[in-house]
Design brief:
There is one protein chain. The chain has about 150 residues and is an alpha/beta fold. The chain has a single domain, classed as Rossmann fold (3-Layer(aba) Sandwich). It has 5 helices and 5 strands, in the order βααβαβαββα. The chain has a 5-stranded parallel beta sheet, sandwiched between helices. Strand 3 (about 70-75), helix 4 (about 80-90) and strand 4 (about 95-100) form a beta-alpha-beta unit. Helix 3 runs parallel beside helix 4. About 30% of the residues are buried.
C-alpha cells in the first residue's frame, strides 16, 4: 500500500518556526520518523512538500492513481483552498488531515478547515505523532480488508 504524505506551506521551515507551537525538530526529522514507521508497518510512502498551492494540486493529480491514501498537512491552505479540496476529492482516495499544532486552540480563523469535511478524520495537536497515527489508520484499513 502506497500512501502520499503531503505537506503544504511553511512545513519546510520546521525547526526554525515558533518552537512553542511546532517543536524544535526540522522537516527532515519528520520525514525520517514517517519513513521509519512506514517501514515497520510495511507501507510505502511518497513525500511531497511545497509552498505553492498549484504544485500540491499537480502532485495529487499526478500521483493519486498509484496510491491507496493521502496524509496531508495543508498548512494555511487548510482554511481556504477549495482548489486543494477539489483535487483531494477528485483523487477518490481516503484522506487523513494532520496538523502538528492544535488548530482549534489557536486563532479563530484557524478553527475552520475546508479539508476536514472530505477527510476520513483530522488529527491535530499531537505533533509529529499525528503522522504516525495516520499511517497506523491506513495499516488498519489494510488489515481489515484482508
Amino acid at each position: 500500500m502506497k500512501i502520499l504524505v503531503i505537506n503544504g506551506p511553511n512545513l519546510n521551515m520546521l525547526g526554525k518556526r515558533d518552537d512553542s507551537v511546532y517543536g524544535t525538530k526540522d522537516y527532515s526529522a519528520l520525514v525520517n520518523m514517517i519513513e521509519d514507521e512506514a517501514e515497520k508497518l510495511s507501507l510505502d510512502v511518497l513525500f511531497f512538500q511545497s509552498n505553492h498551492e498549484g504544485e500540491l494540486i499537480d502532485f495529487i493529480q499526478n500521483n493519486s492513481s498509484t496510491a491507496s491514501g493521502i496524509i496531508i498537512n495543508p498548512g494555511a491552505l487548510t482554511h481556504y483552498s477549495i482548489a486543494l479540496r477539489d483535487a483531494l476529492t477528485d483523487s477518490k482516495l481516503k484522506v487523513v488531515e494532520v496538523h502538528i499544532s492544535n488548530i482549534h486552540a489557536r486563532e479563530q480563523f484557524r478553527h475552520i478547515s475546508v479539508i476536514a469535511p472530505i477527510s476520513e478524520g483530522q488529527i491535530a495537536g499531537l505533533g509529529f505523532n499525528g503522522f504516525v497515527y495516520a499511517l497506523k489508520y491506513f495499516k488498519d484499513l489494510t488489515n481489515n480488508e484482508n
